[in-house]
Structure formats: C-alpha cells, structure tokens
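Quick one: structure for this chain?
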Amino acid sequence: MKQLSTRISQKLLSHLAIGEQYVLQDIATLLEMDIEATKRKGVLSRTGENAIVLLINLQKSSYATPYVDHIDNDVLYWEGQLKQRFVEKNMNSGEYEIFVFVRDVIKTPFTYYGRAIPIATQYFDPGTPCKTKFSLYEYSNTSAFQTIIQDPEIERPSTTFPESTYEQPAYQGPTTKRSVVEQRTVQQMYRKTALELWHNRCAVLGIEQPKILIASHIKPWRVSDTKERVDPKNALILSPLYDKLFDLGMITFKPSNGNILLSNQLKPQEYERLGLDDTKKLAMIPDGTEGYLDYHNKYVYDFAPCIETELHALIS
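Got it. Here's what it folds into:
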C-alpha cells in the first residue's frame, strides 16, 4: 500500500490556530479544493493525503440530514455519514490526522478545535449513522478549555493531609503539590458522600464491603463540569466487575426503573459466565441521579472502545 502524503496535514498545522475562526473558503484554500466541492459536506479529504477535516454544524439547517453532534468539555460526539464510512474505516489506522472545525449556527465562521483521536464508536448498518466519540486532545491543552472547566463557585476543600499521603513525581513545585492534595481530597470526599448515599452497599448486589467497592462516575469525569465531578448523585457504588463493565459501556441502567441493560459488546453466554443477567437492577434511584443515568444511556452505553482506549482502560 502506498504511503499517504502528509503535505496537506503539515500545511494545516502550520496555518491553523486553535480557537481561531475560519470561513469555508479559508478551509477550502488550505485543502487546495474548489469551494463548490466543500459545500454541504461534513467530511473533507483529498486522495493520497492523510488529512481528514470534520466540519461540525451544531445547529442543522432544515434540509440537512438530522445528525446529532455536540461537544462536552474536550470530547466531541459525532455522527458519521449515512452510507459512506470513510472516517470510520480509516480513523483507527494510525495513518490519518483528523482536524475538527465547529460552528454553532450555519452561515457563520467555523472555530478550529485542533486535531482529534477516536475514543469509542457505535457501529450501525448503512442508512443509520455510526456514532463516534473523539478526544479533542489538542484543544484540552489550551487556555480556552482550561477557562471552561474552572468554576469559582466550587469551594476548595482544606488541604490537611500530610505530603507523605501521596506519591510524588521526581520534582513538584508547591503549586503542583497543593493541586495533587486538593484533587485527592475532593475524590475522598466524593467517595465518602457517595457511599453514604448508597448506604455503604453495592448499588446492584448489596454487598457491604466498602473497601472493595468503587464510587463510579455515571457521567464520566472528563466530560463532567466541576460541580458534576463532586456530586454524589453522579455516582454508583459498584463492585469491581460492575464498575469496569459500566465504565466500558457494556452495561447501563434504565433511569426509569434501574433495570440493567446488557450491550451487544459481549455475547449472552459471556454475561452468563460473569454472573450477569437481565434480572439485575439498581437497589434504588436517588433523586437527581436519573439525568446522569440518561446521559450514560445515550453517550456511554454500547460504545465499543477503540483499541488504544481499550488497552489504557484495562491496564492498571
């Protein structure tokens, strides 16, 4: 197989700035494409080049296919094309660079969000768009993103833990040390309040062994805002097996009644061997937890992790 050229991707990298706005003509020029060839398209690429450009319209026009795309913090949720699966076929090959442009309203400039890497995907037959989660890893390192995730209304806990309670890298300045202690203190507080909410028991099995139970975020940490990250209503207390399957989107629970849902990522006999079946359910659904479960149902459940993400999740 002939190696793809990186000329266009290098051109994009040298001319684009994350957070800056560009009109369609700017993007077409950089791709060396005629403007007419880019109109009403959500995916742009050139034969022989390794650059893929995603044009995301968060507000759709009346005549457009009703794709549902949105961004949570540094994660892009993107629905692919109905039939052509160019992105889905090539995004895990490691050969392509994926560049993301987003606009809220049509006929306005796009904002450049940098490059993205796939996290997880739901595959469907042609005619139904596949759904993919992308990490906006370059955008997450910008000051624009750091500003978004800061919330001055959240009171920081007092940092009374001695330095010996956490591991240190080779060198940490005082600010880094304080941040590590504060984060771990917040996590301890979150776990404590979540355990209290669930009466120190596994939400499914009722096991009363807090030392082996995990306070699992329902809406994942990376896409939650500051308040959601410490909200005990955004937690399920789960045994390690249920926590891992829930985190990987292999199981979820209905917001209405707490009944378990088993995804197609595992075969029925595999769930059986793990001791899971469709009779399992949450012992209760605390007020305020339904919305988080609805999010997990829509944006975590049944997404198959991409290879790199899956390996990372399974190495402790």
